[in-house]
Amino acid sequence: MNQEIMPITPWGPALTTEEVTAGVTIVETEGHGGMRLTLGRQTEMRLAGVPEEWIKEWYEEDCEVAVVMLAFCDEFDPPSVARALKMVVGIADDLDLLAARWKVLLAWTGSSGTKINERIALNYCHSGTCPLCNYPFQVYVRESEYLGWKSGVLIQEAMPDLSLDDRERFQTGICHGCWETMERQLDDE
Predict the structure, then answer these.
(1) Are 21 and 75 in contact (CB under 8 A)?
(2) All structural domains of the chain with their residue ranges
Protein backbone atom coordinates (compact mmCIF):
# COMPACT_ATOMS: atom_id res chain seq x y z
CA MET A 1 0.00 0.00 0.00
CA ASN A 2 1.35 3.44 -0.97
CA GLN A 3 0.66 5.76 1.95
CA GLU A 4 1.51 9.48 1.83
CA ILE A 5 3.65 10.71 4.72
CA MET A 6 1.95 13.68 6.34
CA PRO A 7 4.17 16.58 7.42
CA ILE A 8 4.75 17.65 10.99
CA THR A 9 3.53 21.23 11.26
CA PRO A 10 4.08 23.94 13.89
CA TRP A 11 0.61 22.91 15.18
CA GLY A 12 1.25 19.18 15.36
CA PRO A 13 0.96 16.30 12.87
CA ALA A 14 -1.04 17.07 9.73
CA LEU A 15 -4.32 15.22 9.36
CA THR A 16 -5.02 16.46 5.83
CA THR A 17 -3.18 18.41 3.15
CA GLU A 18 -4.47 19.92 -0.09
CA GLU A 19 -2.46 21.82 -2.67
CA VAL A 20 -4.69 24.80 -3.49
CA THR A 21 -2.35 26.31 -6.08
CA ALA A 22 1.17 25.49 -7.21
CA GLY A 23 3.45 25.41 -4.19
CA VAL A 24 0.75 26.43 -1.69
CA THR A 25 -0.76 23.71 0.49
CA ILE A 26 -3.53 23.96 3.08
CA VAL A 27 -2.72 21.84 6.12
CA GLU A 28 -5.17 20.81 8.84
CA THR A 29 -4.19 19.37 12.20
CA GLU A 30 -6.26 18.12 15.11
CA GLY A 31 -6.57 21.57 16.66
CA HIS A 32 -5.40 24.10 14.10
CA GLY A 33 -3.90 24.54 10.66
CA GLY A 34 -2.64 26.90 8.04
CA MET A 35 -0.76 27.07 4.77
CA ARG A 36 2.64 25.80 3.75
CA LEU A 37 4.72 27.41 1.01
CA THR A 38 7.42 25.72 -1.02
CA LEU A 39 10.85 27.36 -1.25
CA GLY A 40 10.00 28.37 -4.81
CA ARG A 41 6.91 30.29 -3.73
CA GLN A 42 8.87 31.89 -0.88
CA THR A 43 11.43 33.05 -3.45
CA GLU A 44 8.65 34.53 -5.60
CA MET A 45 7.47 36.54 -2.60
CA ARG A 46 11.03 37.74 -1.97
CA LEU A 47 11.43 38.80 -5.61
CA ALA A 48 8.10 40.65 -5.45
CA GLY A 49 9.37 42.75 -2.56
CA VAL A 50 7.44 41.14 0.27
CA PRO A 51 9.14 42.10 3.55
CA GLU A 52 11.49 39.38 4.72
CA GLU A 53 9.71 39.02 8.08
CA TRP A 54 6.53 38.02 6.20
CA ILE A 55 8.23 35.23 4.23
CA LYS A 56 8.32 31.78 5.80
CA GLU A 57 7.31 28.17 5.24
CA TRP A 58 4.25 28.04 7.52
CA TYR A 59 1.36 30.53 7.81
CA GLU A 60 -1.18 30.21 10.62
CA GLU A 61 -4.82 29.93 9.47
CA ASP A 62 -6.44 32.66 11.57
CA CYS A 63 -4.58 35.62 10.10
CA GLU A 64 -1.20 34.88 8.52
CA VAL A 65 -2.66 33.04 5.51
CA ALA A 66 -3.90 36.43 4.34
CA VAL A 67 -0.32 37.36 3.42
CA VAL A 68 -0.12 34.35 1.08
CA MET A 69 -3.51 35.02 -0.47
CA LEU A 70 -2.64 38.66 -1.15
CA ALA A 71 0.83 37.83 -2.45
CA PHE A 72 -0.68 35.39 -4.97
CA CYS A 73 -4.07 37.10 -5.38
CA ASP A 74 -4.38 36.07 -9.04
CA GLU A 75 -4.46 32.43 -7.93
CA PHE A 76 -7.29 32.73 -5.39
CA ASP A 77 -10.94 33.52 -6.03
CA PRO A 78 -11.99 37.16 -5.54
CA PRO A 79 -14.13 36.54 -2.41
CA SER A 80 -11.14 34.87 -0.71
CA VAL A 81 -8.88 37.79 -1.65
CA ALA A 82 -11.43 40.24 -0.22
CA ARG A 83 -11.55 38.25 3.05
CA ALA A 84 -7.74 38.19 3.16
CA LEU A 85 -7.60 41.96 2.79
CA LYS A 86 -10.08 42.37 5.65
CA MET A 87 -7.98 39.93 7.69
CA VAL A 88 -4.79 41.99 7.21
CA VAL A 89 -6.60 45.14 8.25
CA GLY A 90 -8.23 43.33 11.18
CA ILE A 91 -5.01 41.96 12.70
CA ALA A 92 -3.59 45.43 13.27
CA ASP A 93 -4.18 46.22 16.92
CA ASP A 94 -3.43 49.93 16.63
CA LEU A 95 -3.56 52.58 13.92
CA ASP A 96 0.22 53.00 13.66
CA LEU A 97 0.64 49.27 13.08
CA LEU A 98 -2.22 49.27 10.57
CA ALA A 99 -0.66 52.18 8.67
CA ALA A 100 2.73 50.44 8.62
CA ARG A 101 1.22 47.16 7.38
CA TRP A 102 -0.87 48.93 4.76
CA LYS A 103 2.19 50.84 3.48
CA VAL A 104 4.15 47.60 3.16
CA LEU A 105 1.19 45.80 1.57
CA LEU A 106 0.84 48.51 -1.08
CA ALA A 107 4.57 48.49 -1.75
CA TRP A 108 4.58 44.87 -2.86
CA THR A 109 1.19 44.74 -4.58
CA GLY A 110 1.62 47.79 -6.79
CA SER A 111 0.66 51.39 -6.38
CA SER A 112 -2.61 51.86 -4.51
CA GLY A 113 -3.04 48.10 -4.23
CA THR A 114 -4.21 48.03 -7.87
CA LYS A 115 -3.65 44.30 -8.36
CA ILE A 116 -5.67 43.36 -5.26
CA ASN A 117 -8.40 45.92 -5.96
CA GLU A 118 -8.76 44.66 -9.53
CA ARG A 119 -9.06 41.07 -8.29
CA ILE A 120 -11.70 42.01 -5.71
CA ALA A 121 -13.65 43.98 -8.36
CA LEU A 122 -14.37 40.71 -10.18
CA ASN A 123 -17.76 40.37 -8.55
CA TYR A 124 -19.61 38.06 -10.96
CA CYS A 125 -18.82 34.35 -10.99
CA HIS A 126 -19.83 32.20 -13.95
CA SER A 127 -19.45 28.55 -13.01
CA GLY A 128 -20.30 25.23 -14.53
CA THR A 129 -18.80 22.05 -15.90
CA CYS A 130 -17.40 21.23 -19.32
CA PRO A 131 -20.21 19.50 -21.24
CA LEU A 132 -17.72 17.02 -22.71
CA CYS A 133 -15.59 15.95 -19.72
CA ASN A 134 -17.51 17.33 -16.71
CA TYR A 135 -14.46 19.32 -15.52
CA PRO A 136 -15.73 22.08 -13.19
CA PHE A 137 -14.80 25.71 -13.81
CA GLN A 138 -15.28 29.19 -12.41
CA VAL A 139 -14.65 32.39 -14.37
CA TYR A 140 -14.74 35.72 -12.53
CA VAL A 141 -15.55 39.00 -14.28
CA ARG A 142 -16.95 42.38 -13.32
CA GLU A 143 -20.74 42.41 -13.25
CA SER A 144 -20.74 45.35 -15.70
CA GLU A 145 -18.72 43.24 -18.19
CA TYR A 146 -21.18 40.36 -17.85
CA LEU A 147 -24.16 42.67 -18.36
CA GLY A 148 -22.48 44.21 -21.43
CA TRP A 149 -21.97 40.77 -22.94
CA LYS A 150 -25.55 39.72 -22.13
CA SER A 151 -26.82 42.88 -23.88
CA GLY A 152 -25.04 41.90 -27.11
CA VAL A 153 -21.52 43.33 -26.86
CA LEU A 154 -18.96 40.93 -28.35
CA ILE A 155 -17.27 38.99 -25.55
CA GLN A 156 -13.76 40.16 -26.52
CA GLU A 157 -14.98 43.76 -26.18
CA ALA A 158 -17.10 43.24 -23.07
CA MET A 159 -14.43 41.20 -21.27
CA PRO A 160 -11.07 42.26 -22.76
CA ASP A 161 -9.01 40.93 -19.85
CA LEU A 162 -10.27 37.34 -20.13
CA SER A 163 -8.00 34.78 -21.76
CA LEU A 164 -9.23 33.03 -24.91
CA ASP A 165 -9.75 29.85 -22.84
CA ASP A 166 -11.88 31.66 -20.26
CA ARG A 167 -13.94 33.37 -22.97
CA GLU A 168 -14.66 29.97 -24.49
CA ARG A 169 -15.54 28.51 -21.09
CA PHE A 170 -17.81 31.50 -20.50
CA GLN A 171 -19.66 31.06 -23.80
CA THR A 172 -19.78 27.28 -24.30
CA GLY A 173 -18.42 25.75 -21.10
CA ILE A 174 -15.94 23.68 -23.14
CA CYS A 175 -12.53 23.42 -21.47
CA HIS A 176 -9.16 23.90 -23.17
CA GLY A 177 -8.30 20.19 -23.04
CA CYS A 178 -11.49 19.19 -24.83
CA TRP A 179 -10.95 21.84 -27.51
CA GLU A 180 -7.45 20.49 -28.10
CA THR A 181 -8.82 16.94 -28.40
CA MET A 182 -11.46 18.06 -30.92
CA GLU A 183 -8.86 19.96 -32.97
CA ARG A 184 -6.57 16.88 -33.06
CA GLN A 185 -9.48 14.75 -34.22
CA LEU A 186 -10.27 17.23 -37.01
CA ASP A 187 -6.60 17.31 -38.05
CA ASP A 188 -6.53 13.50 -38.20
CA GLU A 189 -9.54 13.35 -40.59
Answers:
(1) yes
(2) 8-119, 122-188
The pLDDT of residue 1 = 39
Identify whether the C-beta of residue 63 lies closer than 8 Å to the C-beta of residue 52: no
Specify whether the CB–CB gap between 73 and 119 falls below 8 A.
yes
- Cβ within 8 Å of residue 29, ≥6 positions away: 9, 11, 12, 13, 14, 15
Beta strand 24-29 with 33-37 is antiparallel
Burial of 114 (0-12, 13-18, 19+ CB in 10 A): exposed
What is the Cα–Cα distance from 53 to 57, expressed in whole angstroms?
11
pTM: 0.60
Cα separation of 146 and 123, whole Å?
10
Residue pLDDT, tens place only, 160-173: 888 888 888 888 98
